[in-house]
Amino acid sequence: MNYIVFDLEWNQCPDGKAKENPALPFEILEIGAVKLNSEMQEVSRFHELVQPSVYKRLHSMTQSIIHLSADKLKKADPFPAVCERFRQWCTEDATYCIWGSLDLLEFQRNMRYHNVENFFPFPLKYLDIQKLYSICFDDGKSRKSLETAVDELQIPKSQTFHAALSDAFYTAEVMKLLPDKQLHHFYSIDYFRSPKNRREEIYIIFDGYSKFVSKEFSSKKDLMKDRKVTSTKCYLCGKNAKKKIRWFASGGKNFSCLAYCEEHGYLKGKIRLKKCENSDGFFCVKTIKQIDVDRAGDLLERKLILQERRRLKRHHE
Question: What superfamily in CATH does domain 3-185 come from?
């Protein structure tokens, strides 16, 4: 197995969001990647510029950050050709690694726009090194910049940042210092391609919680009526846990609930509604996590506060 640690640099509409192409808000200009073997040893590198076809002029912010030459970009190959060479360079059994999740999203958007086959496996499990760095060396919730992580780990800064190959190199250097257990136990799941049917639905048990990614539904209402979506199965024993607080809107597109397993105690459920990237439908990501009595009480208190806020809002309308 190889690890493909990659980074992208992209451009956006130089004339502002009002004039951008909604199908391609960010256009890839550069792909850089480092290939590591199973022993975390570097075995190969990939680096190419991409000739822009949508936004021919560079946004002022792009110019100030990445310092790419317009002349070199004009001489580069179009995205489909560069993407195909990148695909061939990657191995079929590769694990993809990035800093954050945006590069993976924009890579697939560029594939879709240019009618290039999406060569990533489905479901796409990847390593978000930014998240893993936070889990291993911080509070697990904060998201620090790549340069900050490099400084905190005292990695020598031999190359400039905000260049695709350099950032891929630094991401790989951070990755090498992550404990093996966290590296493989806390992988992420990409949602650009959501499950189309029951057979494709995703259910994974992590260390401390379970995650379920549903199939697509035509409406949010249909989604929240689905029994599989709203079920509260204990991930520790597989038995159905009895709901103590039924699903309630807990802010934005999120829903929460409280369930109780006779063997393992209180479980907190969370549903995040998401718009499908490739259709007009909706899907959800549901997590079930074991919590203690105090956190169960906090969830009940939050529900009561939200209920009171909604009551007061209706009263004043």
Answer: Ribonuclease H-like superfamily/Ribonuclease H (3.30.420.10)
